[in-house]
Design goal:
Layout lengths: L5 E5 L6 E5 L2 E9 L6 H11 L5 E8 L5 E5 L9 H11 L4 E8 L6 H18 L3 E5 L1 E8 L4 H10 L3 E7 L3 E8 L3 H9 L4 E6 L1
Antiparallel strand pairs: 1-7, 2-3, 3-6, 4-5, 4-6, 8-10, 8-11, 9-10
Length: 203
């Protein structure tokens, strides 16, 4: 079975983009995040930056394989802001990101339909304006062996184009290697079948 072992994310915060609808201004931006704790400081910064803003709405998604998300309307009508923003995160299939849309009210009410459209469009423009990168999910193994096994271990690493993360060559040899998740099982078997080579999976 083909395991899904890559995901899309962003490497750095995007430029802020401005979308206008009936005099309301929607400032949208995308930020890379590694945990839910990253969200609050960013939102607070945006409130300071746009101190006349009525709403700082956002959605985030975290996790490579098991994903969690949250959408926040920040006082806009229920599901008129956070969920349309989250919809764009799904549509661009990115994770470990926070998408914010800061609204400065222009005096004309947009109605729920208008709000959904405006927040969705602003989030879409911000994501289109962001450099999206693909990352591979890897598994790491620790290999322990004596010097006589060095040759066959290194040969296998080279043949399989595995990455050596770190090495420790003292009395025995210790290597930390990383491998694509989809090839992890097969690689583990390879080393496990070698005599005098001890392989363990790193959590």
């Amino acid at each position: 079975m083909e395991k899904n072992d890559s995901y899309k994310t962003i490497a750095r915060p995007s430029e802020e983009i401005l979308f206008k609808d009936r005099k309301s201004k929607f400032f949208a931006q995308v930020f890379p995040i590694t945990s839910e704790n990253d969200v609050k400081p960013i939102i607070e910064e945006l409130r300071k930056k746009h101190h006349t803003a009525n709403h700082v709405c956002y959605a985030w998604q975290l996790g490579e394989l098991d994903r969690s998300y949250r959408a926040n309307d920040d006082g806009e009508p229920n599901n008129s802001a956070g969920m349309p923003i989250y919809g764009q995160i799904q549509s661009f299939d990115v994770t470990n990101v926070l998408v914010t849309v800061t609204r400065i009210f222009g005096g004309t009410k947009l109605g729920v339909g208008g709000l959904i459209q405006a927040y969705r469009t602003a989030a879409q423009l911000a994501l289109e304006n962001t450099k999206i990168v693909e990352r591979v999910i890897e598994s790491q193994f620790k290999l322990k062996f004596g010097y006589p096994e060095m040759d066959k271990v290194m040969r296998t690493i080279k043949q399989k184009s595995l990455n050596i993360v770190s090495q420790n060559m003292e009395l025995d040899c210790e290597l930390l290697i990383s491998v694509r998740l989809s090839e992890a099982e097969e690689t583990y078997q390879l080393f496990e079948e070698m005599q005098d080579v001890n392989v363990t999976t790193m959590e």
